[in-house]
């Protein structure tokens, strides 16, 4: 299982899989929903061993800021600090952003996956 599949599995404890999207969310989808994007980078450790780190940004979208914050809290609880399928998910932080045409509220949650 890849780190992305594992992430989706953890997210599905909070939202149904049909509300979880990679990168682009179809316009007809109604909130609440989650979108995620990944980037991978090689990291050279102090002892010379290279390791890969995936940074994943999970965008949590809801009608109101309060709903978005509550959903973000549930996702951090479900994913952050978890070890699953050999991957460790480390929560790095969040920031509030307005989504799309500023009618929806969202938080961007950043996780490092080792």
Structural class assignment: alpha+beta
What is the beta-strand fraction?
over 45%
Query: What's the tally of helices?
Result: 2
In N-to-C order, the SSE pattern is HEEEHEEE
Counted up, domains total 1
Radius of gyration (CA) equals: 15 Å
Unreliable residue runs:
none
Give the beta-strand count.
Answer: 6
Quick one: CATH superfamily?
Answer: Phage tail protein-like
Largest sheet: 6 strands, mixed
Q: Main sheet: which strands, in order across?
A: 1-2-3-6-5-4
Indicate the CATH topology.
STM4215-like
**Overall mean confidence score, pLDDT:** 88
Helical residue percent band: 10-25%
Q: Which CATH first-tier class would you pick?
A: Alpha Beta
| Architecture (CATH level 2) name | 2-Layer Sandwich
The span between the termini is 14 Å
Shape: globular
